[in-house]
Amino acid sequence: MLTCSSVIRHFHDPVASITLDETARHRRRMRMVSDRLENGSTIAFLLDLPEARLLRHGDGLVLDDGRIIEVRAKPEALMEVRARDPRHLLTLAWQIGNRHLAAEITEQTIRLRRDHVIRDMLIGLGASVVDIDAPFDPEGGAYGGAHAGHHHDDGHAHSHGHSHD
User: Which CATH superfamily hosts domain 2-73?
Assistant: First the structure.
């Protein structure tokens, strides 16, 4: 089986692409299959990286035969958060970070996975929240670039020292 043990950012002429949501793009070792090529075939390979990492939209997976497969971020059900001004956006980002949520941050918006509890909190803090379907490319974590967010369902059974109210 073909193996990919390196990822590059700048490349030309990929032979195929692979479209993955954010969760499937955070990997170290996994069997993967490219999207269908024009002739209907696919390329199966083993992703075997030295450490877990978030594969970003536009990354190139270098196969051991030298061919490159381009990573594409699959659109996901997200919330796009907007604030009144830059200071308000910082406050909203702090609240989101305090809940350990994976977030994609730009100068004007924050994107998160849809979550009605978090939506209500953000609206209560004065944010504008709109549902979108878009690729999700969250910030890396403070420890080695990986992120370790958790999702908030109607109730989760673990405790980590702060309230989610």
Answer: Urease metallochaperone UreE, N-terminal domain (2.60.260.20)
